[in-house]
Specification:
- The complex is a heterodimer of chains A (325) and B (526).
- With 325 residues, chain A is mostly helical.
- Helix content of chain A is 79%, strand content 0%.
- Chain A contains 13 helices and no strands.
- Chain B is α+β, with helices and mostly antiparallel strands.
- Chain B contains 16 helices and 19 strands.
- In chain B, strands 1, 8, 9, 10, 11, 12, 13, 14, 15, 16 and 17 form an eleven-stranded mixed sheet that branches. In chain B, strands 4-5-7-6 form a four-stranded antiparallel sheet, covered by helices on one side.
- In chain B, α9 runs antiparallel to α11.
- The longest helix of chain B has 27 residues.
- The chains are: A mainly alpha (325), B alpha+beta (526).
Chain lengths: 325, 526
């Protein structure tokens, strides 16, 4: 047991080092891309509606340090970032870390709510379909799942708003209310974006659950268990599902990473003030430090999720745990 | 706006039953819980098309920022709901006959911190704009103020270095707000400082990325204003989300109604549309680019574009063609006979091109942006129209930031612009037409510098007599048509969408539509 803890720690350590290098590469890439892109934050700041005087532009550029050579800007930024100082928004001097810290939990909450919804819908449906393979129920569930995977999130989101907000008036069309201010309103506003984000995922989880279950159901040990007279319920829940879980967890984990990308559309569509909203706004405004900060946060999150998924494998499959130790 | 009111009145009879049903429905669902039933007080939710980058009162950071600042701040004068100058912190003012001194008498008004508005505050506020290191948008225009004297606590005298008739209009802009001298001393350089003004609402909270809240200021100098207890400005960058928020009662007003949604808002019995024309679309030329350096070529472009195509392609038919210079009706310089100078005429366009030496047309880069549908689609419509006279436009469609950068660097052959004048005085034209020292800037045709036009604009700025001024701007329009540094395409409808129970909010016509936020002080919820 001790050895397995040490193994896990070693794994985490190695992963963290890789993660650090990955983040460094990402940071450098983002920095370069932002500077190659045409656009000037100062011109946008001083009023894209009117003609700022060249003196004002120069003075602002100087104040923000944008008149320095790009390389020196990069190293200054990197040095500070290594000290966990991600600078301040070019627009208003508000610290990037505060922006990220206020928006990151909202994106996480949305992603996790979507995963929970997807799992709660997807896994039971997949099991149900697998147990009655070839039946009408299976056909219907499989077709719905195929449609679910195919419908883009922005179409589904629009349809949900049209139906549940505009037609029935049950749920708000968009927005965010702090949970401390009004918990009910908070969850009402979370529902539609989480469903929009989770629906496609539910479909792929259902399909994965079904095929994984079918594969295990066909194995010899299942036949043996049946021959021994074990109850069908116990076979399914204790043996088949446990064995079928690994690909399901993999897909949930992988999808959680992808969800971070999916949130770009969903956050915009539902005005959910998360990291993606922050990032999109920052890119449009060429707010370099804010883009860097938000990108790093998203990248770090992605890496963490993958790490967690790998650790979860070990919990599910003793063989993986043993191999590592 | 007028039309909307009339329609609303006509519908009143039958809408009574509907509103009772609506009321029951609203009570039954918690969706409309935030709407109060009383006329006085209540909370207004205002959906804005973006989050302000800054609330710095001296920088024009776009319409959402202006809308919010017009709730918090007031100037000596402002533009009122009728589009005319209204005396705000100034009870009265006098202009000397040589137009060199402006004397303002202040009214008894208070800032949100309880301190009185004094001549010292006016002096400090204007000096903050004209300071050498100032980033104020209108620093150049207010730069003619040479001295500011505080004659007593409530009287302030501005002395100009040369006569400048439009000064009072620049003082009416939201960027000329009066803020406490003490605040400037302590917080003037801090972009995140809590703003303090003398407007109807005081700043309450700014939840970044989400909303900004202001609450009623009990010490406001206008009796019985404002009506509302507080206003939540909620940021909706996505236009579809903004419209849905209005339709589902999440908000009571939205700005920048997308043209595609205008009809559905008009048709909705719970909503109304407040529309005006004011902003315009135009083509701007790089006058160093060989064919566009010739006025005949620019005129040919003007004759060749069927404006209806642009309006239908990019604005769902919601706009009014401009076949002359974009001077709004009622503004100085407007002339009905010159309004259709460039009526669509392909034959004339081809003849002008041939005369300029390009009988078979030429190729040119047209800069626009893919970020905003109406800019993008205007470019596509223009491209199609110009193909008819052999001008092959190659579209350059970076995102908005990239487009602004290219515009300001003169990196274009011609470009699509959508804008409006800053003020209701004809001097708004200077920003666009004047050559001067900075020949490449946002709103001028790059390198265009016509001495005759500069001269007329200079004269217009110093002439006090209205009739005389009218003549000068008449001559200006003639010269501008002849030179055509811009090709104007259309007035676009600029609309706010409102719930029917919102009263008193006005979409100020003409260029001032972007300052309509000032009428939130008159806004009530029924």
């Amino acid at each position: 047991m001790n050895a397995s803890v040490a193994g896990a720690l070693l794994l985490v350590g190695r992963k963290l080092l890789t993660a650090f290098i990955q983040l460094l590469v990402i940071a450098t890439l983002i920095f370069s891309v932002m500077y190659i892109m045409p656009g000037d934050p100062v011109l946008l700041l001083l009023g894209a509606d009117s003609n700022p005087s060249p003196e004002a532009v120069a003075s602002m550029r100087n104040q923000l340090g944008l008149d320095q050579p790009v390389m020196s800007q990069y190293f200054v930024w990197l040095w500070k970032a290594l000290h966990l100082d991600f600078g301040a928004s070019l627009a208003n001097g508000y610290p990037v870390s505060r922006y990220v810290l206020s928006n990151l939990p909202r994106t996480l909450e949305l992603a996790f709510a979507a995963i929970i919804i997807a799992t709660l819908i997807g896994v039971p449906l997949g099991i149900a379909a697998a147990l009655k393979r070839g039946s009408l129920r299976d056909t219907i569930l499989t077709s719905v799942a195929t449609i679910g995977i195919s419908v883009p999130v922005y179409i589904l989101g629009t349809m949900l708003v049209l139906f549940f907000s505009l037609k029935l008036g049950w749920l708000p069309a968009s927005g965010y209310t702090d949970i401390s201010r009004n918990a009910l309103e908070h969850f009402r506003k979370l529902t539609l974006p989480a469903v929009a984000l989770g629906f496609g995922l539910a479909a792929s989880i259902a399909r994965m659950t079904r095929s994984s279950m079918l594969e295990i159901l066909g194995r010899d040990f299942v036949r043996a268990l049946r021959a021994k007279g074990m109850s069908e319920r116990r076979i399914i829940w204790q043996h088949v599902l446990r064995n079928a879980a690994i690909p399901i967890v993999t897909i949930i984990g992988l999808q959680l990473g992808n969800l971070m990308g999916g949130t770009v559309l969903v956050e915009a569509m539902f005005n959910w003030p998360g990291l993606s909203t922050l990032l999109v706004g920052a890119v449009s405004a060429r707010n370099y430090p804010l883009v860097q900060g938000a990108m790093l946060a998203i990248a770090a999150l992605f890496i963490c999720i993958n790490l967690l998924v790998e650790l979860l494998y070990s919990l599910l499959d003793p063989r993986i745990r043993r191999k590592r130790t | 706006m007028e039309k909307t009111n009339k329609q609303a009145q006509a519908k009143k009879g039958y809408s009574m039953k509907k509103s009772v049903l609506g009321l029951i429905f609203a009570l039954a669902s918690s969706v409309s819980a935030h709407q109060a039933l009383a006329a006085e007080g209540g909370t207004l939710y205002f959906g804005l098309s973006g989050e302000p980058s800054t609330l710095d009162s001296t920088i024009n950071a776009g319409t959402p920022a202006r809308t919010i600042r017009l709730a918090i701040h007031r100037g000596l004068v402002n533009y009122g709901a009728d589009g005319k100058l209204s005396q705000e912190l100034a009870r009265s003012y006098e202009v000397s006959t040589d137009a060199l001194t402006y004397t303002f008498k202040l009214r008894d008004a208070k800032f949100h911190d309880g301190s009185p508005v004094t001549a010292q505050d006016v002096k400090a506020s204007i000096e903050r704009i004209t300071a050498a290191d100032s980033k104020a948008t209108y620093r150049n225009e207010l730069g003619v103020i040479k001295a500011i004297d505080t004659l007593d606590a409530k009287t302030v005298k501005l002395t100009l270095s040369k006569p400048f008739v439009p000064l009072i209009h620049y003082l009416a802009l939201p960027e000329s707000a009066i803020v406490p001298a003490a605040w400037i001393r302590d917080h003037g350089k801090d972009p995140n400082a809590t703003p303090i003004g003398a407007g109807p609402f005081k700043f309450s909270a700014w939840e970044r990325g989400r909303e900004l809240t202001v609450e009623k200021f009990d010490g406001y100098y206008k009796q019985g204003r404002p009506h509302l207890d507080d206003v939540h400005y909620v940021f909706y960058a996505d236009e579809n989300t903004r419209v849905n928020a209005l339709k589902s009662s999440d908000v009571d007003i939205i700005d920048y109604v997308p043209w595609k949604d205008a009809a559905s808002i008009e048709a909705d019995s719970n909503l109304k549309l407040a529309s005006t024309t004011g902003p315009f679309m135009m083509l701007q030329f790089n006058t160093k680019f060989e064919p566009f350096s010739k006025p005949e070529v620019r005129q040919a472009v003007s004759y060749a574009i069927d404006r209806a195509t642009v309006i239908n392609t990019a604005f769902n038919g919601r706009g009014t063609p401009i076949y002359g210079i974009a001077v709004p009706e009622g503004y100085m310089g407007y002339s009905k006979e010159k309004a259709n100078y460039f009526s669509y005429d392909i034959t004339k366009a081809k003849a002008l091109l041939a005369k300029a030496g390009y009988p078979n047309g030429f190729e040119a880069r047209l800069l626009s942006t893919a970020q905003y549908g109406f800019h993008n689609n205007t470019a596509i419509a223009v491209q199609a129209e110009l193909a008819k006279i052999g001008i092959k436009a190659k579209l350059d469609l970076p995102d908005w930031s990239g487009r602004i950068a290219k515009n300001n660097a003169g990196d274009y052959d011609f470009l699509v612009a959508g804008t409006a004048g800053d003020i209701a005085d004809p001097d708004w034209l200077s920003n666009f037409f004047y050559g001067g020292q900075q020949l490449v800037r946002l709103n001028n045709s790059a390198y265009f510098n016509d001495p005759a036009i500069n001269d007329l604009l200079d004269k217009g700025r110093v002439t006090l007599d209205t009739a005389e001024r009218g003549k000068i701007y008449g001559q200006f329009v003639d010269r501008a048509l002849e030179q055509s540094p811009f090709v104007y395409l259309m007035w676009r409808d600029q609309s706010f969408g409102l719930r029917k129970n919102v009263k008193g909010f006005t979409n100020i016509p003409g260029f001032l539509t972007f300052q309509s936020g000032i009428t939130v002080e008159d806004t009530e919820l029924e």
